[in-house]
Write a structure and sequence with these properties.
DUF1062 domain-containing protein; five-stranded mixed sheet; binds zinc ion; elongated; alpha+beta; 10 strands; Structural Genomics Hypothetical 15.5 Kd Protein In mrcA-pckA Intergenic Region, Chain A; about 200 residues
Amino acid sequence: MSFNNIITFKVIAQEKPNVIRNCRHCKRSTEYFCSDKFRVNANQKMIDIWLIYKCLHCESTWNYPILSRVHVNRIDPILHQKFMNNDQETIWYYAFQINKLRKLCDAVKKDIQYELIKEKSNLISSEMTVRICCKYDFGLRIDKLLAEILNISRSKVNTMAKEKMFLLNPNVPISDKVIDNLQVTVKGNWHEYVSPSLF
Ligand SMILES: [Zn+2]
């Protein structure tokens, strides 16, 4: 009888992406890190909010605009409080808006450290499904992550992909980046490729 195991892996980002932009003080393009602080400005009833970045070398600041001249009544009071308190989860949310940051900077450094946490372990079956939870998008590729999860080389992953041993849900190419809740079912004689001790 064939049955399917689901094993969930969580990708936990360990740091926020740095950005590359010109520093007036260093007089060259440098790396900026997120300071973990918002700057909130209130002018009458109009609010401006930035997330502060600092040059790695001279600590010059760059303010990433989050809200510009928004009437205080139009901001959710809970969110407003989070900006005032430098709420970490809110900071991480904005620090991972990579597409927006890329437009305002020269580049965003996406090769950040992450931890892979396995949530459920089970034994060998004819099929195995890996579910990936990834809260923040930082351009991590599916084939790279699969190689890490299955503890095999990237070329082995590509060989298995050519042999149609992976079924992706949603059905995206294996060279795409990881999306939250992606499920990869490994079919066929996958235990010949993957060490069962891993699970
Ligand atoms: Zn600098």
